[in-house]
């Protein structure tokens, strides 16, 4: 109370301007209900369009032609054999033919007069040509009743449709702005009352950022006998700047101006906390039933674990002083040797060196490595994205501690915080700085955007503002 009385004495010394621009930032995260789904589908077989449309009509769905798409199949049109040799300088040769064998034979003929070179690299390149080209029709299916989406997917499968993942449409966006305005309106009214101003009806809203996270079950519905596609809501975070105009009858008579910062920090207990977690353990899922978590999403995924099996030795050889190019190219795979023991790899190495030597090719060891062989173990798992809104901080602390003790790591917390008192204290801080001048008039107040993440309760909340004012020095 003492702070407020001092503040009003301070206000009596101020010559306010007739208009003050008040700019506030606000974030709001909401779950938006999807109202409609859009599914694109391509039919490769001849389509009985009227018959399909009649079936979709029974499911409150509409079929619309979108465009034509090319469906091409490729075949290998040619092979190019490329080699780089070195005789103190690089020699590059390549030959192209319809078959790999022909390309290699042509290259060997081109290299027959080259003796005593060192192999730098050898490669076979494939060129693909269009084998067949078919024109397919692409359609858009509008699903107005999302409860029937699986029935619609089953119908499309029956006609051998190549189905894309659904995209969703939501008409819930206006709710975001009304939630943001309900928060900023309260702040603006408090500031206007403190300064003795009136709020004008007109406001400006600038959408700074709109992040949409649409969750859906990536079920393998194309390979299942019956579709099991789960439609979930879209999570949206909207960040907006809202500008208000505060008015009174005062005049701004000051020519000089200043921008000052006001700041305040306060510990605040949130009104509520939204907890979102990811769980892929059925036992833990059952243990969490007492808290009444709601499933936002469930999804299946394949976990791949690589298990070390055994080591083997790999030796890469380098060919130099090549007098038989045909033998080298036809046996080029022999320049890499693999074996599980030192004894075996040395046996193969000596055998390889002798074979190449008989054909006038010197082979030396370029690299020797121990390679760890692995095998993959694939396991299908299901994870759940769970959400819970908690209004009691005592209950939240109990739940949060339990989640940590259960080893749950992906815990996302969203706090609902009333920051209006902190914002007012930041204004007091700015006005205290202004009273060092003989006189001043406030022209604008702007909240500085805050991107802080909060983890501890009570939340340590800092708010910063910029006050622009005319001053008398």
What keyword list fits this structure?
473 residues; six-stranded mixed beta sheet; elongated; 3 domains; disordered N terminus; alpha+beta; single chain
Protein architecture, described:
This protein has 3 domains: 2-34 and 172-293 and 384-472, no CATH class; 36-169, no CATH class; 304-378, no CATH class. Helices cover 25% and strands 49% of the residues. It contains 10 helices and 17 strands. The chain has helices at 2-11, 49-57, 100-110, 149-158, 173-195, 282-287, 325-330, 342-358, 393-405, 420-434; strands spanning 19-32, 36-43, 61-86, 90-97, 118-143, 161-163, 167-169, 198-216, 231-247, 256-268, 272-279, 294-320, 336-339, 362-390, 411-416, 439-447, 459-472. It has a 6-stranded mixed β-sheet with strand order 8-9-1-16-17-10. Strands 2, 3, 4, 5, 6 and 7 form a 6-stranded antiparallel β-sheet that branches. A 5-stranded antiparallel β-sheet has the order 13-12-14-11-15. A hairpin with a 3-residue loop joins strand 3 and strand 4. The chain is elongated and about 105 Å long. Residues 1-13 and 212-226 have low confidence and may be disordered.
Based on CA inertia axes, which overall geometry fits?
A: elongated
Quaternary organization: single chain
- Strand content bin: over 45%
N/C terminus separation: 31 Å
Uncertain segments are 1-13, 212-226
**What is the mean predicted local confidence, pLDDT?**
80
Summarize the structure.
This protein has about 475 residues and is an alpha+beta fold.
Spell out the blueprint of helices and strands.
Blueprint (H helix, E strand, L loop, with lengths): L1 H10 L7 E14 L3 E8 L5 H9 L3 E26 L3 E8 L2 H11 L7 E26 L5 H10 L2 E3 L3 E3 L3 H23 L2 E19 L14 E17 L8 E13 L3 E8 L2 H6 L6 E27 L4 H6 L5 E4 L2 H17 L3 E29 L2 H13 L5 E6 L3 H15 L4 E9 L11 E14 L1
Parallel strand pairs: 1-16
Antiparallel strand pairs: 1-9, 2-5, 2-6, 2-7, 3-4, 3-5, 8-9, 10-17, 11-14, 11-15, 12-13, 12-14, 16-17
């Amino acid at each position: 109370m003492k702070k407020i009385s001092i503040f009003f004495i301070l206000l009596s010394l101020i010559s306010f301007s007739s208009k003050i621009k008040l700019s506030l930032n606000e974030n709001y995260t909401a779950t938006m209900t999807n109202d409609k789904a859009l599914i694109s589908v391509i039919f490769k077989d001849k389509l009985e369009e009227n018959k399909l449309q009649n079936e979709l009509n029974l499911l409150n769905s509409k079929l619309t032609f979108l465009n034509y798409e090319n469906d091409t199949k490729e075949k290998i049109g040619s092979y190019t054999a490329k080699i780089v040799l070195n005789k103190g300088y690089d020699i590059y040769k390549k030959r192209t033919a319809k078959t790999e064998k022909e390309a290699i034979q042509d290259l060997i003929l081109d290299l027959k007069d080259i003796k005593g070179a060192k192999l730098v690299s050898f490669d076979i390149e494939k060129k693909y040509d269009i084998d067949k080209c078919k024109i397919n029709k692409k359609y858009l299916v509008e699903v107005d009743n999302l409860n029937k989406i699986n029935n619609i997917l089953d119908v499309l499968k029956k006609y051998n449709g190549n189905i894309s993942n659904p995209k969703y449409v939501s008409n819930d966006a206006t709710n975001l702005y009304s939630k943001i305005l309900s928060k900023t309106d309260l702040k603006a009214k408090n500031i206007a009352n403190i300064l003795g101003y009136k709020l004008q009806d007109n406001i400006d809203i600038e959408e700074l950022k709109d992040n949409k996270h649409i969750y859906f079950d990536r079920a393998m519905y194309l390979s299942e006998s019956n579709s099991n596609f789960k439609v979930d809501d879209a999570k949206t975070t909207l960040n907006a700047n809202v500008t208000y105009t505060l008015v009174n009858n005062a005049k701004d008579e000051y020519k000089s101006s200043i921008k000052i910062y006001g700041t305040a920090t306060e510990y605040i207990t949130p009104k509520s906390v939204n907890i979102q977690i990811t769980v892929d353990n059925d036992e833990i899922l059952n243990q969490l039933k007492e808290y009444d978590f709601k499933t936002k999403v469930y999804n299946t995924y394949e976990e791949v674990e690589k298990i070390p099996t055994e080591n083997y030795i790999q030796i890469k050889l380098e060919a130099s002083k090549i007098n038989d190019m045909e033998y080298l190219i036809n046996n080029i795979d022999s320049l890499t040797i693999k074996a599980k023991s030192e004894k075996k790899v040395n046996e193969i190495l000596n055998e390889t060196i002798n074979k190449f030597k008989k054909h006038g090719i010197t082979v030396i060891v370029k690299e020797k490595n121990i390679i760890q062989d692995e095998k993959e173990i694939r396991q299908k798992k299901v994870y759940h994205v769970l959400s819970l809104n908690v209004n009691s901080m005592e209950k939240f602390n109990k739940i949060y501690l339990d989640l940590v003790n259960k080893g749950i790591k992906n815990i996302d917390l969203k706090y609902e915080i009333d920051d209006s008192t902190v914002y007012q204290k930041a204004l007091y801080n700015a006005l205290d700085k202004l009273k060092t001048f003989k006189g001043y008039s406030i022209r604008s107040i702007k909240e500085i955007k805050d991107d802080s993440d909060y983890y501890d309760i009570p939340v340590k909340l800092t708010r910063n503002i910029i006050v622009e004012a005319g001053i008398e020095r």
